[in-house]
Structures are given as C-alpha cells and as structure tokens.
Amino acid sequence: MIAALPLFHRIAGRPVIVLGEGEGADAKRRLVERAGGIIIGDLDAGVAQGARLAFVVHEDAALAEADVARARAAGLLVNATDRPALCDFTVPSILDRSPVLLAIGTGGASAGLAKQVRLRLEALLPASLGALARALSAARPALRQRFPEASARRRALDAALGAGGALDPLTDQAPDAVARWLDGAPAAEAGVFEIGLRSNDPDDLTVREARWLGTADVVMHEARVPGTVLDRARADAVRLMMGSTIAPDGRLTVIIRAAP
CA geometry: angle at 248 spanning 245 and 249, to 5°? Predict the structure, then answer.
C-alpha cells in the first residue's frame, strides 16, 4: 500500500493561500508562482476568492496548528512546512522536463533525500524529453490512423519507448524522431504469454517478464500470486482469476502462475 496518492494539481490562474514569513514562506511563494498560481496571504481573503490549497509556514508550533485548523475548517487542503503530521499533502522535489514532470516525494520524511534522488535523475533524463512528449501529443491523430485499435497502439508505443526502442526516452531524440518512427512502425507483439514465478519477489522477474506484465492488456493469475507482483501490471489492465475465459481478440494476455 502507498502512503499517499500522487497527483498533479493545476493551479494556474487560481488563488493559493500562503501564510507565514521568512525563507520557508518565500520558497512556497516561488513554487506557487512557478506553477502560475495567484498568491493570497490572508486566509479569509483566500477562502472568499475560492482557494482550495493552503501552505502554512510558521516557526511557532501553536500558530501553525491554529492556522492549519482554521484552513481545514474552511475546507482547504493544507501543507504545513516541516510538520508532516499536520499535512494533507506534501510538496515533492520536482524534476522539470516540461511537459514531463517527475515528482519525488518521501511523505515528509526527508526533503534532502528527495532532492538527492532528483539530482541523480536529472543526469539521466535528456533535455529532449519534453520535446519528445510534445511530438507524441501532436502525433496522436497519426497514431490512431496507423494503429486503430487502442491495445495495438499502446503496445507499439511501449515497444518504441522501451529501453533500446526507436523512441527510448533516456536517449537524445531528433526533432523528427516520432515522424520517422511512425513511417515504419511495426506492429508490436501480441498473444498469450505465461510467467511461472520462481518466488514471491517481483524483482525476480526477468526483464522480458517484467515488460510483458507492464504492458499486458489482460492479466490472468492464480489465487496465490501476491499483490506485490500484480502491482507491476498496468493499473488499467483487466485482472482475472485463473479459470476465467477471454476472447482471443488480439489483446496481449499474460498468465501468471504462483511460485512453488
């Protein structure tokens, strides 16, 4: 189970309350401005203008608790700097390759750890990643024409964007990479594949097994297959217990048998 649900919240042009002074409050104001939000420094004024998020940045614990209580009573979601127990949401360390954003969070456990993870990832992700995302967005009509079936379209993209694929996002991509790929994009593998687990540890999956599971349209599994393994499948993949039947409609199906 994850401790919090990661979400991306659009605040451009919307009021966001920031209460407090000093470096911590200034940092939150810069964050809100970076996302296009309108900073409101008064709780009542922010509520009147329709704010839904509040940052509370006070050194004084009693003042922080009081403002958090007031904000929650007004129906706002609250972040209280350096006070995880008072937070409805936490602020991740952000890796920006717009429109691709990576948010690294620790649930308030350690902002320093989140920052160092982000810095490591910064070195891995090329500057061309944002341009690749924009090119894929612009190519949606052509993708639908080339692969009319959603499952075939998803598999083709998975193959192209996978490690070593034509559009591998961890390598620098030319501006016309998506167009060139579409010109000769092959149909991705489909059919039924079987995984026999060697243990209940999902890290024991081979690279190929992990790829099948992560791209499958349908996952059929025995009752003893642990949730930690099933969590490696796409969230929107159909999950069926063994013994169910499915139509052979070209979807990528993975059968998982439990470890001995």
Answer: 125
